[in-house]
Amino acid sequence: MDKKDISFLEQLLINTDKDYIISELTNTDNTLFLHYFAANYNWNSGFDLPRVILENESCDLGTGLLMFHSVDGYRMLEDSDEVSSSSLEEWKDFLNKIYNKLINFEFKSQNISFDPELTKIQKYKLKKNNPNIPDILISKSPGEVVDIPKI
């Protein structure tokens, strides 16, 4: 992405017109743009925009994994009952959608790598507790490693 695209991304991240942002995220086919947006998104702002990214056909597997771990997917892997019993319905719904999309390999591209950077001990504990955890949720995804600009 060039400076113009990064500048547009910065403007989109601070824009307060949700309909405009949704339109831009829906209509882009730039996987890297979606990845950078998700990486710099303020998760305290809700799940509407991440849901749009997740539903965009250009959303890469690496972006999905990034969003899963950004919304505390680790907690789901550690104790799925805790997530199931949570009163945070929007969070729980988003986490379940992204989890299912990841484990069912519903992403068309795998060009952007994301590494959840779990230690060997964290992976061991997760696998010991639940041997059926798919490796895709705890390992570096295939694709090219990209430097994410901090905006």
Structure description:
It is a single chain. The longest helix is centred in the middle third of the chain and has 15 residues, at 89-103. Strands 1-2 form a two-stranded parallel sheet. With 151 residues, the chain is an all-alpha fold. The protein has helices at 3-14, 18-27, 31-40, 48-55, 61-70, 73-78, 80-84, 89-103, 120-129, and strands at residues 112-113, 144-145. It contains 9 helices and 2 strands; from the N terminus they run H-H-H-H-H-H-H-H-E-H-E.
Low-confidence stretches: none
The structural class is mainly alpha
Strand order, largest beta sheet? 1-2
Q: Topology as H/E string?
A: HHHHHHHHEHE
Helix segment count? 9
Round the mean pLDDT to the nearest integer and report it: 94
Number of strands: 2
